[in-house]
């Protein structure tokens, strides 16, 4: 019985594209007593792997916390796999507002000590004595009350791109740090203020609200289902959004736009921007905000040092990484002195710019007819020339193409000139090694598609 992933992210992305089926990005969690987390984990893996469900899931004696991507056509069957467990009957699934078929490319289910690293000793307080759950409109109403203090229980990189008006946004790198900081800061308000809290999907507040009640706060409230569910109610029930900007999420999208306000800056040039990325240097992987211009100039790296490193031969990069543990982490969530425009701590909701309307709606994106032509082999960054191998059909000058990959994303442009096997040509056929100018960096194994006009 296969109990672990066998496909690479690239292979999975290709299979998803070829299947051309719509997927749903969703999340859910449940606190419950689980006797045998390892057995529970294996059961879930077998059931979900069969449904082509992907995601990052943590299970522990205290419950389950899941972020997933599920084929839309398997959604009902997927729900049944949850309902098979008593504690997940009627569970609310937070379905993302913006969809992306590549939000998760692996099914990873891990057994952990806790489903959220909160650093709390659950034996010392009543974890079931939680704050009152609020729906979006109720949350807005309480937010408008002058006796309310609203606290963002997420981390600096999350609140930087979007948060509620007037929220306290602790300058922390993890949830564990924020609990004592807030407790200390709000010492004098335990009796007579409303403590209103929120996080991404609600799970952090389940525990935090119980902790603060135990600390003596009298009026504790939490946003039910977090910002994800709030955004859904804003969209579907016409509730006014008091959340400004983007909701950061930990999948390949790195954020879901709630309002078109951009409240953050490119960490390198200061221009209004709220697109997170991770440094292309495998030994760094720092999570930071970078605009398209800086991305092109810096080739997706966070510093001149990292920029130099990615141009070293692969063997030397590997040798330099020896002993460093960051290489296999997806993101490093720290800060860097090199980033001049990084903001944290006291954040405003002042709009620096408006986001352009998103044209790449996933439903439209799927409808684009395209055919896989070949794969990326090399990118000559000085001359901005990409090299591809044609494996299917042919490619001609004037063709519109789409280049797609986990780091590259999806980029479209029109071919103006082709060199096939080193010779300037009108078109290229299967087996040809082609090069052409391309304004962004392409990676090994990026897919080259020809877009078919209809
Ligand atoms: Zn910039
Ligand atoms: Zn870096």
TrEMBL record:
Biological process according to GO: tRNA modification
Stretches assigned to the Rhodanese domain: 144-239
Keyword Transmembrane assigned: no
Alphabetized UniProt keyword annotations: Oxidoreductase, tRNA processing
Enzyme Commission number(s) from the entry: 1.14.-.-
Entry's Gene Ontology molecular function annotations: oxidoreductase activity, acting on paired donors, with incorporation or reduction of molecular oxygen
SUPFAM superfamilies for this protein: Rhodanese/Cell cycle control phosphatase (SSF52821)
InterPro entries with a match to the protein in the record: Rhodanese-like_dom, Rhodanese-like_dom_sf, Rhodanese_C, TrhO, TRHO_N
First-level EC class: oxidoreductase
Keyword Oxidoreductase: yes
Name of one Pfam family that matches: Rhodanese
UniProt catalytic activity: uridine(34) in tRNA + AH2 + O2 = 5-hydroxyuridine(34) in tRNA + A + H2O
Transmembrane segments: none
Family according to the record: Belongs to the TrhO family.
Function, in words: Catalyzes oxygen-dependent 5-hydroxyuridine (ho5U) modification at position 34 in tRNAs, the first step in 5-carboxymethoxyuridine (cmo5U) biosynthesis. May be part of an alternate pathway, which is able to bypass cmo5U biogenesis in a subset of tRNAs under aerobic conditions.
Classification via NCBIfam families: PRK00142.1-1, PRK00142.1-3
Protein name as annotated: tRNA uridine(34) hydroxylase
Organism: Epilithonimonas zeae
Encoding gene, per UniProt annotation: trhO
